[in-house]
Design a protein that fits this description.
about 120 residues; alpha+beta; Deoxyribonuclease I, Chain A; four-stranded mixed sheet; two-stranded antiparallel sheet; 3 helices
Length: about 120
């Protein structure tokens, strides 16, 4: 994918409901992540941010782009943030928000996360 003329790798995940399954998914994912090019990892982690899958992903040098965006699940009455947008290697976050509008609440059981990014390291 190109963004602003720059190559950006985007990886979409949907980790399993079972902790062991999430761990297996992460092992497969981590072997394939680039370490030197702009990267976005996003999707349903099926855990809240202080749990093992998030810690594993953040330990790879990624930044939680939506740390203050708000809860995403369930869409009908959001109470947990189990959906991630993680960025690294030359990308910085300029804005992040959960899109909580009526259409989003009926489109999925998760609310979408919108993150604006720019080239350049996080400051």
């Amino acid at each position: 994918m190109l963004a602003g003329g720059e190559k950006v790798r985007v990886v979409v995940v949907h980790l399993g409901l079972d902790a062991g399954e999430r761990e297996r998914h992460l092992r497969l994912l981590l072997d394939r992540l680039p370490r030197t090019e702009p990267l976005v990892v996003l999707g349903d982690v099926n855990e809240v941010p202080d749990q093992p899958s998030w810690r594993t992903l953040l330990a790879q040098g990624l930044t939680d782009a939506a740390a203050h965006a708000g809860p995403t699940f369930p869409a009908s009455a959001p109470a947990q943030r189990i959906d991630a947008v993680l960025v690294g290697y030359g990308l910085r976050v300029t804005a992040a928000r959960v899109l909580d509008v009526p259409a989003a609440r009926v489109a999925s059981d998760h609310l979408p996360v919108v993150v604006d990014l720019a080239a350049g390291e996080e400051r």
